[in-house]
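Give me structure tokens for this 57-residue protein.
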Amino acid sequence: MEVSEGSPRQPVPSAWVSDDAEGGRGLMLLEAVADKWGVGPGPRGGKTVRFECGGGT
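Here you go.
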């Protein structure tokens, strides 16, 4: 799966996110469910975050 956005700023894991925050959980979720993930240049600038989740056995 890939998600692209226009911001060139690299994602930074949040040390702590309040329960009512509207953002800041993306990398925490990736770490929890993805087998591997990475960040690279987006197709029109910005960045693309890619991740893979195994099918499980």
